[in-house]
Amino acid sequence: MAILKSVNIKSLEYIFQAFENNKSDNPAKVIFKRFPLVDEIFPMANKKNILESKIFKEFDNTNNSKEQLLEYVINIIIENITANRIDYNRFIKECVSHIENLVYDEKEIHTIKDFLTLPQEAIFNIAQELYIYAKTEDKFEIEHKKKLK
Q1: Global confidence as pTM
Q2: Is 122 exposed, middle or buried, given 0-12, 13-18 or 19+ CB atoms closer than 10 A?
Q3: Which helix (H) or strand (E) holds 63?
Q4: Measuring CA to CA, how many Å separate 23 from each of 10, 27, 61?
Q5: Rg of the chain over all Cα atoms, to the nearest angstrom
Q6: What is the rounded CA–CA span in Å between residue 89 and residue 120?
Q7: Are 138 and 9 spatial neighbours (Cβ–Cβ below 8 Å)?
Q8: How far apart are CA 11 and CA 149, in angstroms?
Q9: Euclidean distance between CA atoms 123 and 9, whole angstroms
Q10: What's the confidence (pLDDT) of residue 101?
Q11: pLDDT tens profile 101-113
């Protein structure tokens, strides 16, 4: 019989290292409510296919049609590049429960709403670290045991 054992399970409490938080006497902790699923990536936007668009299907080779198609292609390229970026705000809202021991500008940061009022650079740096931690896979191993008769 094979027995699946957890070897290393991530903690729902995480002390982030950004801005040397982990070196503090009382470091801030982020408390997760859940971790993302293995295939969950929080894209900034959905990728689109140019060939399936109404503009492409109705293309009639006129100047107006060419301009519309060119503008549409440029917009889709920009959106598709954006789609490869991670929406950290959405990730934080969906996966983080609250924050403990964090103060910014003499204001205590507890809720996700509070966290999202931090400067964008701080949000990005902390959220990126949290995302990397959250996406780290737990470790498992199989223990083999002989079947008893």
Answers
A1: 0.70
A2: middle
A3: helix 63-83
A4: 20, 7, 64
A5: 23
A6: 10
A7: yes
A8: 39
A9: 26
A10: 96
A11: 999 999 999 999 9
